[in-house]
Amino acid sequence: MEKIQAPKGTRDIFGLETILWHRLEKTVRETARDFYFGEIRTPIFEYTDLFARSIGEETDIVQKEMYTFLDRAGRSLTLRPEGTAPVMRAYIEHGYHVSHPRLKWYYMGPMFRYEKPQAGRMRQFHQFGFESIGFLSPGSDAEIISLSWLIYQKLGFRRLTLEINSLGCPECKETYHRTLSDYLHRQHFCPTCRMRADRNPLRVLDCKDPTCREQLLVPDFPTIQQALCPVCRNHQEALFGLLEAVAIPFTVNPLLVRGLDYYLRTAFEIKTKALGAQDAVGGGGRYDNLSNSLGISGIPGVGFAAGMERVVLLLEQQEQASVPGNNPRLYLAPLDLAGEKALLNAAMELNRHSIPVYLDFADKGIKQHLKRAQKMNIGLILIAGELEVRNRRYALKNLMTGKQVPCDLATVIKLCQGATEDDEIT
Ligand code: AMP
What we know:
This protein is an alpha+beta fold. The chain has 15 helices and 16 strands.
């Protein structure tokens, strides 16, 4: 029979790697809490229309990468490829634009894109993201960028770079589109770019074709930075001033666009040199036009999303695989059924006191238990068989000293909570 494997572009996360995931998740949750961003958990699938209308029909995501299917009632559903459109959908659906127009939310969870899998690029991947909805001020752009920067700093990353661009507002975007479209028609871009030249020329900046990319770097390539209107330029200058005030270094990349159409003005990306081709660990920007495509106009917003697999890869490199495990304090070694009953009970009581244990079973003798505890690097063993149960005393063995003493559970708990060194126990 053919072996069943995880689907292409997906992976199992287990073992020591989960400790890094927990560290990342904890840092995100704590930072969000301390900046008063509440959590939102949206469904894994949404009506296809949500993404088609908001992300943009011309984007790679909508054209090639969505996992779209019909449910049994014939509705078109899509596994979420990103988190911002669902967040805006929820904001409008729950009437926040009327009741609490200014809102800060964060999310965390799996996203799905039918991309060509490679190192750092998955079909099921995870993102955490922050969204600030209802704020027009460049201060909220700066807060989002600072928050993402802060999270990376707390995780210990020192060599990340921040690139910023402005995508303009509908007015300057239109002027720029005309200039860009004229330019593109005069050059030799790939067939997809030529097709997009009239309808959505900005997408050309996102093309992965190497010949197209080369042509973007020539000095006379027209950039959006040259076309910004005074309002957009002021917004950008104010943001730069704020970032300088909090000492976050950045460079302006006039070719930076995002893979989603709903961004206006600020767009940014945080990059690393440590992950090879997939160098973006996160990105975001301002999306004041997103709500329009969902039927309510004029709700500004700015947000950020980070690729969690890539962040975990960076953590792995930083730790050089020496991740400290959360080693159990006690190895529980039952010798028979009576011992199993007693130690299962003890395990539950120890857990109520937050003392981590490893519970083994009576399918092995004491020698094997000791060997296993040693292999697992657990210094203390609590042993119980019929005799110990009858005497209402466990045998507590210290593997370092080899000493063994009779002990009731209350004393074990007290010792584990009070003592810092195993030798203090026996
Ligand atoms: P985006 O939603 O495209 O703005 O992406 C935000 C971040 O998510 C990127 O900077 C990446 O770190 C991460 N990301 C996007 N697509 C993938 C993918 N297919 N696999 C892994 N990470 C991804």
